[in-house]
Amino acid sequence: MTPPVTSATNGPDPLPTEAAAELHARLTFDLDVDLCVIGAGLAGLSVALEAAQLGLSVAVLEGRRVGWAASGATLGSVLPGYGVPIGDLIDRVGVAHAGELWKLSHEGMAIVRARATEEAMPGIALSAGALEVSNVDLGDRLITRLQTLGVDFGSEVEGWQIDRVREVLRTQRYFHAIHFPDAFQLDGRRYIRGLEAMARRAGVRIFEDTPALGIDSSGIRKRIVTPHARLRASDIVLAGNVHLGAASPRLTRTLLPMWRTAVLTAPLGERLAEAIAFPGSIADTHGVDHYRIVGGDRLLWTGPETTFEIPPRRLEGLIRRRIAALYPQLGAVAIERSWSGVIGQTVHGMPQIGELRRGLWVASGFGRQGLAATTIAGRLIARGIVHGDRRWQLFDPFELVWAGGRIGRVVGQGVAIAERRTAIAAGMLARYRERAAERRRLREERLEAANRSVRRFPAERTPTARPAESPDHAVQDEHRADSGGQH
After folding, report:
1. Residue 61, pLDDT above cutoff 60
2. pLDDT of 209 over the 80 cut
3. Closest by Cα among 113, 179, 5 to 375
4. How confident is the model at residue 185 (pLDDT cuts 50, 70, 90)?
5. Residue 459: its pLDDT value, please?
6. Which residue of 1, 27, 52, 439 has the lowest C-beta tally within 10 Å?
7. Distance of CA 49 to CAs 38, 241, 376, 379, 461, Å?
8. Is the Cα torsion angle 308, 213, 29, 216 positive or negative in sign?
9. Residue 239 near residue 44, CB atoms below 8 Å
10. Total domain count, the chain
């Protein structure tokens, strides 16, 4: 996944070490609770917090440490929508259904904003706004998308023309953009630690180094087996993403593991502000690049996704080349740190949220979804358990689909490479067309200037001597001179 956001005041914080974060004990005794959540990432903690606030006794089982995987390495972007293009979402479920899903994402954003305050989470480092930029000339498609998002779905959006985009992002690589002024970013690492603290204060019991080895979901009271104890619960939520393993092999097989590398640059000084004058996050419509300024003069930049783990250092050169291609004025950019995290990507691109069978729930598949999706999943499931809220059924069309195993990973890698190359090629073609259009415009201006000069020439040249003429002829010649010398 993508890296944590850093504090704008104190500069980039290193990833917390094992000793830096508060430790939670293993589960070593049998326990009965109302709800058992498997997985202590963003989704699992969101469910646990919401359920505890509604009065349930909650235990969270984490095989390693809280937020150790993708959730602890999030870019911290909070935007409306999901990880699929809005047109694809409408094609699948229709405008009305897609609009209801969009409203849920806005609700998730509001929950995150209410939680992520400096008072509750010191150093959360909020920054406002998000730009979705195009590396091709969108033309009429921009108007159509703005109509859908702004009018049909009621989102706060702005369409930016090319000149405005290039005023704040000083690169010729981008054309139009959609601005989400109500989007925001935060320090992802501080957010998950703050969420963990909120859950503990609400009464959630978190057990680390306690993997779920097996689940018996039959009967009213479900049973969960761990290495050192057994746990019983009325409801279970599977929120372990690609790391569920033996707890739910079926669910694990529906997720395509995707590693995404991120880098944090060394301080770039004033030259960074001269190249990028936008305070929020920037992502292109084809998913090639996603970045923003952190710590005042550094870039937090995510690189390509891979379905097989590649050491982050091997991809640093690729990211450096992307930065240089977009912003050559930055010169040589040094990479201070690089790292990667694995996310779970579903075949249909949407998260898996809902009840698999009575008392067995799922909150998974949040690759490319953002914080709003994990947050609303927690509210929907908790309220579904306690109040019978059925809004989670809006996600029913996005069923569990096998991701293809190892073959799926090979195919997925090929598709990702092809899409990336296609996007880059499309951008090159768009820039070539822009330059060609500019050359045509200049040629036409020069030709028009030459034509104007030719038209003025007869009136400006010195007249040749003529024989003496009669007064009538002189009057006629004076009339011709006043009319521009035309017959």
Report:
1. yes
2. yes
3. 113
4. very high
5. 52
6. 439
7. 13, 18, 12, 9, 89
8. positive
9. yes
10. 2
Q: Span 365-381, mean pLDDT?
A: 93
Q: In CATH, what number is assigned to the domain containing residue 133?
A: 3.50.50.60
Say which DSSP state 219 is in: S
Neighbours of 409 (CB within 10 A): 17
Tell whether pTM > 0.70. yes
Say if residue 329 is in the same domain as residue 373: yes
In a 10 Å sphere around its CB, with 0-12 CB exposed, 13-18 middle and 19+ buried, how is residue 287 labelled?
A: middle
157, 37: one domain? yes
How many other CB atoms sit within 10 Å of the CB of residue 332? 7
* Distance (Å, whole) CA 239 – CA 44: 5
> In this structure, are residues 206 and 67 in contact, taking their beta carbons and an 8 Å threshold?
no
Those residues whose C-beta lies under 8 Å from the C-beta of residue 298, and which sit 6 or more positions away, are 6, 11, 12, 264, 265, 266, 267, 268, 272, 336
Last residue of a domain, one of 365, 382, 403: 403
Contact 78, 185 (CB under 8 A): yes
Contact 350, 344 (CB under 8 A): no
Residues 340 and 426 in one domain: no
Instruction: Using alpha carbons, select from 135, 142, 91 the residue that is nearest to residue 419.
Output: 135
DSSP 474: H
Which residue from 228, 251, 189, 226 is spatially nearest to 60, judged by alpha carbons? 226
- Examine the domain organization and report whether 152 and 186 are in the same domain: yes
Q: Which residue from 180, 185, 4, 191 is spatially nearest to 78, judged by alpha carbons? A: 185
Report whether pLDDT(460) > 60.
no
The verdict on residue 25 lying in a domain is: no
Alpha-carbon distance 296 to 273, whole Å? Answer: 9
**pLDDT score of 15:** 36
Q: Give the model's confidence band at 474: pLDDT under 50 very low, under 70 low, under 90 confident, else very high.
A: very low
* Token pair in block for residue 200: 């503990």
Return the residue matching tokens 């590693």.
259
Asked, for residue 16, whether it belongs to a domain, the answer is no
Section 162-176 average pLDDT: 94
pLDDT band at 480 (very low <50, low <70, confident <90, very high): very low
Q: Is residue 465 domain-resident? A: no
Q: What are 27-59's pLDDT values in tens digits?
A: 999 999 999 999 999 999 999 999 999 999 999
pLDDT digits (tens, 9 = 90+) for 294-311: 989 999 998 778 888 889
| One domain for residues 331 and 426 | no
pLDDT confidence of residue 85: 87
Domain that holds residue 81: 31-403
